[in-house]
Amino acid sequence: MIIAVASGKGGTGKTTVATSLALAISESSPVILDCDVEAPNAHLFLKPQFDQRQQVSMLIPEVDESRCTGCGHCAEVCQFHAIVVLAGKVLVFPELCHGCGSCGSNCPEEAILEVSRPLGILEAGTAMDGIRFSHGVLNIGEPMAVPVIRQLKHWEPFPNGEVVIRDVSPGTSCPVVESIRGADFVILVTEPTPFGLHDLRLAAQLTRELDLPAGVIVNRDGVGDVGVDETCRQEGLPIMMRIPLDRRIGEAIARGVTIVESFPEYVPHFQELYDRILSLSEEQQQTAKS
Amino acid sequence: MKVAISAVQPQFEAELERRFGRCAYFVLVDAETREWEAIPNPAVEARGGAGTQAAQFLADQGVQAVISGDFGPNAYAALETADIHMYTARGGKISEALDALLAEHLERVTSATGPRRHQDGGRGFGRG
What we know:
The complex is a heterodimer.
Chain A: E1 2-6, H1 14-24, E2 31-34, H2 43-46, E3 49-63, H3 73-77, E4 83-86, E5 89-92, H4 102-105, E6 112-126, E7 132-138, H5 146-154, E8 164-167, H6 174-180, E9 185-190, H7 194-209, E10 214-221, H8 227-235, E11 239-244, H9 247-254, H10 259-262, H11 267-289
Parallel strand pairs in A: 1-8, 1-9, 2-7, 2-8, 9-10, 10-11
Antiparallel strand pairs in A: 3-6, 4-5, 6-7
Helix pairs in contact in A: 1-11, 5-6
Chain B: E1 2-7, E2 25-30, E3 36-40, H1 50-60, E4 65-68, H2 73-81, E5 85-88, H3 94-102, E6 107-108
Parallel strand pairs in B: 1-4, 4-5
Antiparallel strand pairs in B: 1-2, 2-3, 5-6
């Protein structure tokens, strides 16, 4: 069971939900993946001791100028304009390169070599309550988040991860698509404001596009209007949980303390959330079969 | 000298477009005869690397100087390699930009002036 916690809008409480959910179901020994590689923060709450590390890199072209004739085939085939031929000189823009290798395979002079470019690092270790934790950290200034997320998803530092919770980055762009792809259920955390609603709609559209079952958690409930409720009703998105606007929760989060630690009465709520996810995704599978 | 000027519309009296890689048109002018033609920028809808693609396009057109608002780091590096001189104009019309260039009123660009723009969009500034 892979659960992705996404949102659309930033700052709605994805990490708040992902970390408390992991703690509430710690008996099922969940694995948590912080896929927000541009700004990972779940470790601040679950406090893992990292003892496994792996480099993430990508192969990019390097031109052997002694063989290059400046014919320009590489520039013609590059969909990302990461390699250009100007005044007979080849210029490579490593940060634009997606590592597809087309330039090298289309070079008639075999003048293009592939060299490794480091993008970031993966780290894993055991966190609070025995939760198995891993995350990716993108190098500072590095725009290529997707390869780091992809490698994080395929990295298996822990055996038998039956329940996996992925903490996703905000938005609906490529890193989000990569983070929710392959999940069994997507939790969309939102807030009942026009901004929350606007981005929730986009995120819900993305889950439909990828054919993934989704449900909504309304955080800071009571702060805004009824737009989120109305939209969820119209679009058939189940509201799975409501977390009220409560200054004490905000204060705990600001100290790096999860909801279930500061308010143990939330433990059963998060356990119920998990049970509902299981039954909803089972229903989905039944419908898909029939 | 063949000069490319980034433009909003395909006309000599059109407004200058401040974005280099994503301008809708390039107006190509012969500085001596003032003969001009407008060409759609093939990079305007590029998913990424618009600056490098536009630079490649202008180099292939045999342009020697370009006037725009800003040149990002990738566009700057590509144009510099192609030995195309870059000049910034704050706005106004294509014809005015050309006159300002010929009167040596435009500043020659010697480093990138704009931000990097090739990252994926759709991401809010808030943290999740």
